[in-house]
Write a structure and sequence with these properties.
2 helices; 6-stranded antiparallel beta sheet; Immunoglobulin-like; globular; 5-stranded mixed beta sheet; 15% helix; 11 strands; alpha+beta; single chain; 146 residues
Length: 146
Amino acid sequence: MKNYISITVTCLLFLLLAGCKKEATHTAFPSPTWQEDQTGKYPASMTAVVTMFYEMNSQIMPDDKMGAFINDECRGIGKIVKVSPVSTVFFILIHGTAAEQNKVKFKYYSAKSSYMYTTTEFLDFKIDTNYGTADHPETLQLRPID
């Protein structure tokens, strides 16, 4: 009987330890100090209304930041807007030129985790266009920066 209890306890401990998953960790970043160009060299603009998958969207905090970048230069900073009790979006006015040929990528900073996320460069800059709306925001495919 003693042997049976020892084996049972050992098996339970093994299952408990095997069931513990280590949460993925990424590089922690300080809060970014992104700034848009204020000289007027980017007179044209387009708008983007973006969100993230539900798991990330539900954890957005007021100190989180979203930026639009072309060639790693900040071209727009997002404004957080809660559009419903379960949905938050970022409104971003993206600046460029009429001859802009480079693509836009987005970066997101989570104040809660201090993690930085990014997209690939995927969005064409097009003057006076809208990428997403408040009712139908575009969901970004974000990956952590390590």
